[in-house]
């Protein structure tokens, strides 16, 4: 006799078997990759770089969807509201972690609503001045700021950006007071420095590499953990005795909460394999990137650590977005 309990157990078994079968054959249709910034930027670069290789590995198209705006919050919310079936993935920048520290309210929980999958690479934050700047070294810049507290301006791509956090860490480390000028994006901030209207900036190398190569920007020091190949001869702040915590923005794959572990492992392992491909690795290095290749657990630890660190800096510096 079929009882209510036996029917429920049978139905549950069918559901579990269906879920397992779906995970085992994933993907069976195109995978949407949401990016919270416009096409052509450093976050979009990682998506375009892996789009075709992953499509070949998975036998399905990877459809990139650029949902720019609000410091990638629009895109992040869209991912949080998506089914945890592996068909919507998020290529997030590290503002995913800093937003949690600077925004008074977010339409999602940065930790509870997402599944970290794999972290691709980081782009060092670099201290730049314009080509005609009188400052030849980071020491020159610090000395000028100490002579006139508050008189030296630093541009950033926005309040709470990685460059803003780097500036706040730097000025505390070396004991200077400066004026922070926030722009709406990296491009206008960099152009003001190139033109000499703002003396300096901390900027992501991947976003400034073109201006650095053509001489529009002069790099004084690297805010990342080590020197980079494309800026041969430029020291790190740590080498100069001005070391700050690493503020290098990262770019990684994240999914909605509850993403099944087999899908997490499939995506992570496939991406990690591609990062070992010399041709792909070379393209990342050529734009000033540092390959991280962090799996789910390491990536999760990084996000949690950065949220805590950024929250402390934001409190001390009064960085807050309502």
TrEMBL record:
InterPro entries for this protein: BUG, Bug_dom1
Keywords assigned by UniProt, alphabetized: Signal
Matches recorded under CDD domains: PBP2_Bug27
Signal peptide: 1-22
Domain of life: Bacteria
Pfam families: TctC
Protein family: Belongs to the UPF0065 (bug) family.
Name the record gives this protein: Tripartite tricarboxylate transporter substrate binding protein
């Amino acid at each position: 006799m079929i009882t209510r309990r036996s029917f429920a157990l049978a139905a549950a078994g069918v559901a579990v078997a269906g879920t397992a079968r779906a995970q085992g054959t994933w993907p069976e249709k195109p995978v949407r990759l949401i990016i919270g910034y416009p096409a052509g930027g450093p976050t979009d670069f990682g998506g375009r770089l892996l789009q075709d290789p992953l499509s070949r590995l998975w036998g399905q198209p990877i459809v990139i969807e650029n949902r720019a705006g609000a410091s990638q919050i629009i895109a992040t919310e869209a991912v949080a509201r998506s089914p945890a079936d592996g068909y919507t993935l998020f290529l997030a920048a590290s503002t995913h972690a800093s937003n949690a520290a600077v925004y008074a309210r977010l339409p999602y929980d940065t930790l509870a609503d997402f599944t970290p999958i794999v972290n691709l690479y980081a782009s060092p934050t670099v201290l730049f001045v314009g080509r005609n700047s009188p400052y030849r070294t980071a020491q020159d810049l610090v000395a000028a700021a100490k002579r006139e507290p508050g008189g030296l301006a630093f541009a950033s791509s926005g309040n709470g950006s990685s460059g803003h956090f780097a500036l706040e860490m730097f000025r505390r480390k070396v004991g200077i007071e400066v004026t922070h000028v926030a722009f709406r994006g990296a491009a206008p901030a960099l152009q003001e420095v190139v033109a000499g209207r703002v003396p300096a900036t901390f900027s992501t190398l991947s976003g400034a590499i073109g201006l650095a190569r053509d001489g529009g920007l002069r790099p004084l020091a690297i805010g990342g953990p080590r020197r980079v190949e494309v800026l041969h001869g430029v020291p790190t702040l740590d080498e100069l005795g001005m070391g700050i915590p690493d503020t290098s923005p990262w770019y990684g794959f994240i999914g909605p909460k509850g993403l099944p572990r087999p899908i997490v492992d499939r995506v992570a392992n496939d991406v990690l394999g591609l990062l070992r491909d010399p041709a792909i690795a070379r393209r990342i290095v050529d734009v000033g990137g540092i390959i991280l290749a962090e799996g789910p657990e390491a990536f999760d630890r990084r996000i949690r650590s950065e949220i805590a660190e950024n929250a402390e800096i934001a409190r001390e510096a009064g960085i807050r977005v309502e």
